[in-house]
Amino acid sequence: MNKKAKRRLVVTGGIVAIAMLVIVAIAGSGGAASSLTVGDLLTGDYAGKKVQVTGSVVDGSIETDGTAVRFDITPEEGDGSESVRVVYEGALPATFGSGVVAICTGTVENPPMLRCTEMVTKCPSKYESAEGSLTVKGLIDQADTMMFEDTKVCGYIQGEVNDASADYRFVIESQGATLKVVYDGGLDEQVSDGVAVVLSGHLDSDGIFVATEQPAIDSSISK
């Protein structure tokens, strides 16, 4: 091998080595998130670390602050005595809400708090028949006597399904009448425009239906 070929080989080898170092550095800087429990975070030993924590969203803990949403998560099988604060900026999935299991990835800050950059939620499906429930028109026609009374109402979701921080979650329609629905819990991923649902809850004084359970999908009918 002549000197020119040797020089070329050395240069090529150097470039390859530098490229490999850059790749390793980039991979190391990103770093895979460590999977931790809520209890792990509460020890205060993980400040500045990228972690992934799974927990149930604590009822009544959801707050909005500009584009940020703050909420607490607690272990799925725990007694609720342990919880950690999560701050998330981004589009909330429709399935997000109180009681939903949230898988949160982000950076730990002190005091123990998770600055979440990625969130995935999971919520069990629920199906139920509309039999025995009122239509929207039937409920509105009896509004004076049905206000704050526990009842069931059925209808088709009309239009967009909002996240849990919105003024109302969605609108349902049946027999030509519409009703705004408030619900801060999680929704099945199939709850969307045109889907038939059965809601448990009560009619509020402002004419909005306050759902107290996850909307059930009426799988027996379709629009």
Automatic annotation (TrEMBL):
<keyword id="KW-0201">Cytochrome c-type biogenesis</keyword>
<keyword id="KW-0408">Iron</keyword>
<keyword id="KW-0349">Heme</keyword>
<keyword id="KW-0472">Membrane</keyword>
<dbReference type="GO" id="GO:0017004">
    <property type="term" value="P:cytochrome complex assembly"/>
</dbReference>
<dbReference type="InterPro" id="IPR012340">
    <property type="entry name" value="NA-bd_OB-fold"/>
</dbReference>
<dbReference type="GO" id="GO:0020037">
    <property type="term" value="F:heme binding"/>
</dbReference>
<protein>
    <submittedName>
        <fullName>Cytochrome c-type biogenesis protein CcmE</fullName>
    </submittedName>
</protein>
<dbReference type="GO" id="GO:0005886">
    <property type="term" value="C:plasma membrane"/>
</dbReference>
<keyword id="KW-0479">Metal-binding</keyword>
<dbReference type="Pfam" id="PF03100">
    <property type="entry name" value="CcmE"/>
</dbReference>
<dbReference type="InterPro" id="IPR004329">
    <property type="entry name" value="CcmE"/>
</dbReference>
<dbReference type="GO" id="GO:0017003">
    <property type="term" value="P:protein-heme linkage"/>
</dbReference>
<dbReference type="InterPro" id="IPR036127">
    <property type="entry name" value="CcmE-like_sf"/>
</dbReference>
